[in-house]
Amino acid sequence: MFAADKTLDTLTKGSRHSPAFPHSPSAANAATSLKERISRDEIKGKRCGQSKQAISLAYATRRADSIQAAKEILLNAESMFPKEALIKYNLACYFCQTGDIKMAKDYLKKAFEIDLNWRSAALEDKDLKPLWESL
Predict the structure, then answer these.
(1) Range 19-29 burial, b when 16+ CB lie within 10 A, else e
(2) 108 phi and psi angles, rounded to 5 deg
(3) How many distinct helices (H) and strands (E) make up the chain?
């Protein structure tokens, strides 16, 4: 398990989708710390060995900075990991949260094509609530 994942697990204990989570000062501090532990060079300019690093960095960036910054990380990582459903799923969440419903639907469809098991998660993910009726 990556150090970043341990930090996230300690931080969240199942509350990653909790609306209160992003507003917690300790969560923001831990997310910033997590970002510092994962070098952006592992994502940009170099092909990192694991998609999980990009996903963890994007998650921390969303909490510490913005959804837009997190989205950019995953858009960069997407070409390196075209078969990683979680990258596409998280991009769907980010596009949905920034109001681009068409792109959110497109990315969700791509995630489902890779792994249909993400559909059940999507039906409960508050980030995707605007899409629930169409799922």
Answers:
(1) eeeeebeebbe
(2) -65, -40
(3) 7, 0
User: What is the domain partition of the chain in residue ranges?
Assistant: 1-81, 83-135
Q: What is the mean pLDDT of residues 43-61?
A: 75
Residue 83, classified by CB atoms within 10 Å of its CB into exposed (0-12), middle (13-18) or buried (19+), is exposed
Distances (CA, A) of 83 to 45, 103, 113, 114, 126: 20, 18, 10, 7, 24
For residues 14 and 109, give the distance between their C-alpha atoms in angstroms, rounded to a whole number: 25
Instruction: Determine the pLDDT at residue 37.
Output: 52
- Please tell me the predicted confidence (pLDDT) of residue 30: 52
pLDDT score of 21 more than 50: no
